[in-house]
């Protein structure tokens, strides 16, 4: 039977991988066993040199120390990852999307997305300030789906709002019969801080707090 080059290479690669994997699994007990086997099977006429044996013991000690240090560093890294994730610090500087309709004006822009659960006949997108007053509005998309919406901070009267203001997206959607169409929205913004002073940890987008369980996506660094 002729063995193809491909199967031969695959067999060789598998053997090499298996051997390498096994060598990486050696622990102190394995080394001690190897040393005992070496002593038991040494040539009586040419026994193992004492200095060489001691050198091997030193190497074993260094190996165990390195393994211990590696495991400790891995545990520390895991603990830090868990801590950073749980207290929200890992989100600092990240641009995130989260369920909600209220956000801050950052760098001259406030960003949302809104979803229409079904087709609508009339859709109005409005921006409300902290007092609940409408400062901007325009017609929105009427087909069912999700749409991004960005506001540059300029009101319907042409006034430029300053960064840091808090604004809410309001979607009014009705079908051809005048019935309300179900809508939902998310906000998008850069995390500027973490507030854990209360019972829950909040990520802050400017002056707006968002709980971590409302985050839907990390958009970018």
From TrEMBL:
Region spans: Disordered: 1-23
GO biological process terms, semicolon-separated: bacterial-type flagellum organization
Domain FlgD/Vpr Ig-like, chain residue ranges per copy: 105-176
Keywords: Bacterial flagellum biogenesis, Cell projection, Cilium, Flagellum
S-adenosyl-L-methionine is among the record's keywords: no
Segments forming domain FlgD Tudor-like: 88-216
Pfam annotation, one family: FLgD_tudor
Record bears the keyword RNA-binding: no
Assigned protein family: Belongs to the FlgD family.
Function: Required for flagellar hook formation. May act as a scaffolding protein.
Name the record gives this protein: Basal-body rod modification protein FlgD
Protein source organism: Cohaesibacter celericrescens
Taxonomic classification: Bacteria, Pseudomonadati, Pseudomonadota, Alphaproteobacteria, Hyphomicrobiales
């Amino acid at each position: 039977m002729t063995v193809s080059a491909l199967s031969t290479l695959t067999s060789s690669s598998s053997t090499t991988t298996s051997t390498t994997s096994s060598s990486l699994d050696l622990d102190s007990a394995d080394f001690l066993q190897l040393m005992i086997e070496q002593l038991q099977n040494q040539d009586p006429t040419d026994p193992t040199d004492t200095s060489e044996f001691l050198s091997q013991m030193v190497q074993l000690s260094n190996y165990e120390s390195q393994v211990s240090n590696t495991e400790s560093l891995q545990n520390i890294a895991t603990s830090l990852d868990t801590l950073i994730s749980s207290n929200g610090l890992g989100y600092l500087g990240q641009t995130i999307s989260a369920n909600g309709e209220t956000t801050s004006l950052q760098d001259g822009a406030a960003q949302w997305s809104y979803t229409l659960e079904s087709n609508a006949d009339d859709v109005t997108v409005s921006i409300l300030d902290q007092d609940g007053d409408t400062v901007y509005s325009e017609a929105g998309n009427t087909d069912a789906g999700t749409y991004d919406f960005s506001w540059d901070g300029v009101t319907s009267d042409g006034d430029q709002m300053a960064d840091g203001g808090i604004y809410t997206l309001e979607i009014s959607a009705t079908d051809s019969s005048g019935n309300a169409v179900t809508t939902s929205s998310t906000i998008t913004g850069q995390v500027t801080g973490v507030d854990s002073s209360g019972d829950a940890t909040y990520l802050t987008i400017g002056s707006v707090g968002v709980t971590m369980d409302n985050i839907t996506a990390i958009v970018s660094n």
